[in-house]
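Narrative summary of target 7.
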Amino acid sequence: MEIEGKKVLVFGSGISGEAASRLLLQKGAEVVLYDGNDSLDADKILGEITWEEGQKARVVLGRLSEQQEDEMLDGLSLVVMSPGVPTDLPVVEKMRAKGIPVWGEIELAYVFGKGQVLAITGTNGKTTTTALLGEIMKNCKESVFVVGNIGTPYTEVALRTEEESVVVAEVSSFQLETIHTFRPKVSAILNITPDHLNRHHTMEAYIGAKEDIARNQTEEDFCVLNYEDDVLRAFGEKTGAEVLYFSSAHKLEKGVYLDGTKIICDIDRPIEICDVSELKILGTHNHENVMAAVAMAYAFGVPVEIIRSTLREFQGVEHRIEFVAEKNGVAYYNDSKGTNPDAAIKGIRAMNRPTVLIGGGYDKDSDYDEWIEAFDGKVKKLVLLGATREKIAETAERHGFRDIVLADSFEEAFAQCVEAAQPGDAVLLSPACASWGMFKNYEERGDKFKELVNRL
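Modeled conformation, tokenized:
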């Protein structure tokens, strides 16, 4: 698509909106960056996105009248949505009715980028799998970019990619709602459990968004799927790509599976990759993440020795069941990335000692029954905070768990944990909720936890 001299609207600021704006300006577009939050600093945003004299960019903030909306949409050639902006807003419907193409930031980067893409989605495990696959590819290829939800927007690096580059991308359901031509060479869907239903409204819509990662793939491409997920096993029957499964519970005729404690890759012939005791990351969920990365790397043609040596060195991801320190005989674990019940269940299952648990936060319309059931005698005290604290407390009491404390601040919650934990116990931050309202993101929440631990 030729966009030089064309008026393009970037809807939503934040790091991906700003990165998309910079890419568009570099391609000569006339950029309007709009954000409904009028408390943002327009001059600061403008300073972030423009760096050359004569570039055409303007920033519009706050709620718009019907007339202002129409003026902003007048003459638009393209709209680029930031992932945090819902795609069913009336103004977005108006754009579509006018025939204005509505792209996501991932689509924009893909259209202007070069090289091959390896893309990963799923409810849980995306960041660990993306980080691991990124390390494998860096040990194999010269030009590798690890992008997406993992931290660096794809649009930030797209114009630096070459034909021989490999882009390893963590892609969310929000980003997949607005793809059109995006086609990874190898895709993976790790698992699907209820999440973000306040955005997608139905489970069917959420599943559809995840499955869109393979929408444009053909039999020349690969799609890696979790054999233990019924939804994904069914999807494997209908996707156009060549399907490779991974499994933690079944020996597969073709795919990557766990045989006792050994990870076996059987795609062309059976190859033992490693024993799970050689890995530095814990838990069955992480073994599944490893198997997904192995399948993707092998399908892409990475030599087995590079895969094997990278797995043995990989330390895991910050904020995901991250050991922080042992203080006074108590082990502290930061699992701030446990932002939904299913992710937080994995955090509890990885604990091997009595655990004092910090939970609660922003309400994403989740149910907490299975999370509470997963306590299974391991959790000795539950300290709750945030908008969901009463809802979680009621759920816990319904399941017979009553050792609950409600805290008004993160610092108070942490102090309650320190008081309750005995030598030999663990304190686990694994909230089962998003951090919004109290923190900017789960990283800030995890960093605060680590700061408090290290002060002890």
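Residues 239 and 415 are 50 Å apart (CA to CA).
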